[in-house]
Write a structure and sequence with these properties.
CATH class: Alpha Beta
Number of strands: 10
Bound molecules: 7-(2-hydroxyethyl)-8-mercaptoguanine
Oligomer: single chain
CATH superfamily: 7,8-Dihydro-6-hydroxymethylpterin-pyrophosphokinase HPPK
Order of helices and strands: EHEEEHEEEHEEHE
């Protein structure tokens, strides 16, 4: 694969063996033609946003990809399905959720695809892991770096899961 576009994704799981699911999802992503996992954050145990449900494990990754945003989105949704994700409740528990957060400094506003992810700037479970691997990346909607956004968010519900995640 030649040099691709730089993309940030967030991964979350709160059903089944979430640690195995997130690690497995990242290695499967790296095997998909046109996608390379450039960096991955540590894992964090995070209090759920939404209806009462178990804590999540969350992580973020930087990808290099030759896939355009639409095709990448479909590929990520297919990977979620491979892990048995059933969309029951909108904000409910799930085996694997993958969010497309940033695609270079592009902004996309389609009904099914918004980049940057519209809720990423208020979610500590995204900003804390993402700031480990993409602190200087500027969110084109706010003009602020991920490091700045991560400093401004309430991170009380976000705890390191294990010292090392590799
Ligand atoms: O959009 C991601 C799914 N999700 C999460 C999550 O990944 N982590 C936490 N802590 N709460 C969440 N609520 C939803 S929905």
């Amino acid at each position: 694969m030649g040099i691709g576009h730089r993309v940030a994704i967030g991964l979350g799981s709160n059903l089944g063996n979430s640690e195995a699911t997130l690690k497995d999802a990242l290695s499967k992503l790296d095997f998909i033609p046109g996608i390379r996992v450039e960096a991955r954050s540590h894992l964090y145990q995070t209090a759920p946003i939404g209806p009462p449900q178990p804590d999540y494990l969350n992580a973020c990754a930087i990808l290099l990809t030759t896939l355009d945003p639409e095709y990448l989105l479909q590929t990520l949704l297919n990977l979620e399905k491979q892990f048995g994700r059933v969309r029951r409740e909108r904000w409910g528990a799930r085996t694997l959720d993958i969010d497309l957060l940033l695609y270079e400094n592009w902004t996309i506003d389609l009904p099914h695809l918004q980049i940057p992810h519209p809720r990423m700037t208020e979610r500590a479970f995204v900003l804390v892991p993402l700031s480990e691997i993409a602190s200087d990346w500027v969110n084109p909607l706010t003009g602020k770096t991920i490091a700045t956004l991560a400093q401004q968010v309430d991170r009380s519900g976000v705890k390191p899961f294990r010292q090392f995640f590799h």
